């Protein structure tokens, strides 16, 4: 018995992958590339760099702290830029809005930038207590921020932007993992 063309009616590959990504069990999620994957992975990378800077400050190793904090701020800023210049505008265009969740994320980016400035000032004057105090506040804000992005905004972006050619690649190019 031969197979007819009707029996092999296939959806476009992107639509198939988007459907799989939405319904995949957690153990398969790592195998499916979705638009926001580079940003999710970059969150972990930034967390590691932050921990390095904090550990150096706690041990009063200021040269190491300066290096680690410099790498962290560079990576975090590239992350913010990728979202603010690429992901958020694409999502806003797809949704037909400019406020909402992306506005909240931009506001939180601003709050984090302010804490980074406080940490930079404490680093310059080698005040471990102030560095770590601002760092604790930053850590809490980053954790809450990343949770909202990874569990609310990113899934919305992945769903709405599934047909956006090259968006994941543009995000990956914008973030710099050193």
TrEMBL record:
InterPro entries linked to this entry: Hemerythrin-like
One GO CC term on file: plasma membrane
Pfam families: Hemerythrin
Domain Hemerythrin-like: residue ranges: 36-157
Protein's recorded name: Hemerythrin (Modular protein)
Naturally occurring in which organism (per UniProt): Denitratisoma oestradiolicum
